[in-house]
Design a protein that fits this description.
This protein is an alpha+beta fold. The chain has six helices and eleven strands. It folds into two domains: 2-104, 4'-phosphopantetheinyl transferase domain (Ribosomal Protein L22, Chain A); 108-223, 4'-phosphopantetheinyl transferase domain (Ribosomal Protein L22, Chain A, Alpha-Beta Complex), CATH 3.90.470.
């Protein structure tokens, strides 16, 4: 797992190095964003993907090409890399993250916990009933953290499945236990129950979530064999740094 802070990629030379990594299509998509902040986050995010992937292969950052499935999830173009690398990208205001694994379905989500983004009505409309019950049972001061813990976990799972919001959010539920501490560093402490309509087994997944800054939460979903150990490493990477 590699993270970057967009505001730390601010020098003109660093921005130019990031732009040089992007494909013409990526640069065109970046320019379609209305606000400069969004253009910059996009730039750093996609430069990070390329820079991070090149840590695991001989392909130069600018040489990566990608395909997308029917739901829009990107993957490495066939024949480009000898190793079966898989990746997933997430970005929000102030933070970008890319998760990389070998031949595994995986998803990552990062969220900025704006106070105005926390709304119990959103949970009532989109979370599973068991999650809503657990959330509303908490003291008011603990509900925002738990809301974003659920939200990032649910986003990481639907991204790992590669189907996005085609998977109804209320048809699978996470159990984080009854304590107030939701910084669970051991994935086996997070359990997933999946409605049979989604044709999946929650025991086939490993999850991790944490608060990575005072304002940000991050969650990772990884498909694995039951009981298989998982090692997660999180490290910063500045895609605009001098090679």
């Amino acid at each position: 797992m590699w993270t970057a802070v967009p505001d730390q990629v601010s020098e003109p030379a660093a921005i130019a190095r990031c732009e040089a990594l992007l494909s013409p299509d990526e640069r065109a998509r970046m320019q379609r964003f209305r606000f400069e902040r969004d253009r910059h986050i996009y730039l750093v995010a996609h430069a990070l993907v390329r820079t991070a992937l090149s840590r695991y292969a001989t392909c130069a950052p600018a040489a990566w090409t990608f395909t997308a499935n029917e739901y829009g999830r990107p993957d490495i173009a066939p024949g480009l890399c000898a190793r079966p690398l898989r990746f997933n990208l997430s970005h929000t205001h102030g933070l970008v993250a890319v998760a990389i694994a070998l031949e595994r379905d995986l998803g990552v989500d990062v969220e900025h916990m704006y106070p105005r983004s926390f709304d119990l009505d959103v949970a009532g409309h989109f979370f599973a009933p068991a999650e809503v019950e657990a959330l509303t049972a908490l003291p008011a001061e603990a509900q925002r953290d738990r809301f974003f813990a659920y939200w990032t976990l649910k986003e990481s799972y639907i991204k790992a499945r590669g189907m996005g919001l085609a998977l109804p959010l209320d048809q699978f539920a996470f159990d984080l236990g009854h304590g107030l501490d939701v910084d669970l560093d051991h994935g086996d402490e997070i359990t997933l129950t999946v409605d049979p309509r989604l044709a999946d087994d929650g025991r086939a997944w490993w999850f991790h979530q944490r608060r990575v800054t005072p304002e940000h939460r991050l969650a990772v979903a990884l498909r694995r064999q039951p009981g298989e150990p998982v090692a997660l490493q999180v490290a910063p990477l500045n895609p605009g740094a001098t090679p």
